[in-house]
Amino acid sequence: MIDYIDIRQLIPQRQPIMMVDALVEADEQSATSRLIIRDNNFFLQEDGCLGEVGLIEHMAQTASAHAGYMAFKQGVQEAPIGYIGEVKGFCLYMLPKKGDELTTTVQIVLQAGNVTVVNAMTKVDDSLVAETQLKISLKE
Amino acid sequence: MMLKDKYFKVNDCTKGEGLSADYSISLLEDCEVYAGHFPGEPICPGVCNIQTVKECMMLLTGEKSLSIRKVKRCRFKALMSPQTVRQLNVHIDAAKHDDGYTVVARIYNAETDFMEFNGEMSS
Amino acid sequence: MTREEIIAKVNSLLAEEFEIEDSNFAGDANMKDSLNLDSINLVDLIALVQFNFKVTIPVDDLHKLQTFNDLYDYIESHQA
Predict the structure, then answer these.
(1) B-chain residues near A88 (CB < 8 A)
(2) CATH architecture of A7-138
(3) DSSP reduced 3-state for A105
(4) If you average pLDDT over residues A80-101, what whole number do you get?
(5) For residue C80, is pLDDT > 80?
(6) What is the pairing mode between strands A22-26 and B19-27?
(7) Residue A33: which pLDDT band, with cuts at 50, 70 and 90?
(8) Is C40 on the interface with B (CB under 8 A)?
(9) Are the beta carbons of B64 and B105 closer than 8 angstroms?
(10) In whole numbers, what is the pLDDT of chain B averaged over residues?
(11) C38 touching B (Cβ < 8 Å)
(12) Which of A26, A89, A108, B10 has the least C-beta neighbours within 10 A?
């Protein structure tokens, strides 16, 4: 477990599109985040479920929070801006709904220049929600 | 729908044969997402462009709800800002299967290719 | 692996990854143009070489890899 850091220190996104509540674990190669799906979530659908693209954004912001945490530990004040370059092999197993708490782990596969390749996996309790590979390119 | 008439609006639709179509859309600069993405620097979230393809697929198929089951590959080839991008085309080539639709889509305009999507959706 | 084996394996992996039918690339052809590589899918090329040949391509070696021959040579000289 890492000590609590205000997520706004780790990611540049702000409401209504902050899709990570907190980073709960992090080391050089991986990180884990949490998000409770509340009724003001930008990606909430009329059927009360979180839209798939909200899941992808949540996974991407977990990867950004990891990069932000590593930068923060090196004394960088401003969270780096990262853009999704590619979503590859996304697979949806179930749609989480309002009230669910997502736990997402990202694992760095490769870093080359300003592009980071991560595998992301999201669960609610022990049920697998979705997984994907993401390429995040950090703004120079 | 989550984004239609909030993030984008449809200006025109030209149907091709089968499940293919071209939607001419514009971005809505006052969408609330830009307050947080990013403060002082409005950049279109890539995932909102995936959702735009999904909602155009709902219009094209008449499905009331669709779920993105798989994304084989979705490439974001250029950054997009609502302040500089006036008009966009969403081209969709879809095929219906017994368990849903395969969807190949592109978002582009005269100057730039922004996104290429290849995935599966089901109702 | 012999050079011929490397060329055959690299070409088939590249053809599959970048969805190109005709996979006998001219050795002196430029990879960036033939595969229309940019910073994002260049990473796919690096990952492919790393996982299939156990050869790591550090970022600052990337500029040496302009043509397919450069890639074949690099793998041949760096394979375990």
Answers:
(1) 71-74
(2) Roll (3.10)
(3) strand
(4) 96
(5) no
(6) unpaired
(7) very high
(8) yes
(9) no
(10) 97
(11) yes
(12) A89
How many contiguous H segments (helices) and E segments (strands) does chain B have?
A: 1, 6
- Total structural domains in chain B? 1
- What is the arithmetic mean of pLDDT over B25-29? 97
Chain A nearest CA to B117, separation (Å):
9
- CA dist A1 to A74, A100, A120, B52, B104, Å? 19, 21, 19, 38, 41
Of C40, C47, C50, the CB nearest to A85: C40
Do the interacting molecules here have an ipTM over 0.85? yes
What range defines the domain where residue B106 resides? 8-122
Element spanning C31, H or E: helix C31-34
pLDDT value, residue A139? 84
The pTM of this model reads: 0.93
* Mean pLDDT (whole number) for C24-34: 91
Count how many domains chain C has.
1
Residues of chain B positioned with their CB less than 8 A from the CB of A54: 47
- Which CATH number does the domain housing residue B106 bear? 3.10.129.10
> Whole-angstrom Cα distance, residue A41 to residue A100?
12
Q: Which two tokens stand for residue A61?
A: 């912001």
In the predicted structure, residue A90 carries a pLDDT above the cut 90:
yes
Domain residue spans of chain A: 7-138
Residue C73 has pLDDT above 90, yes or no: yes
Q: Is B97 on the interface with C (CB under 8 A)?
A: no
* A137 to chain C, closest Cα gap in Å: 8
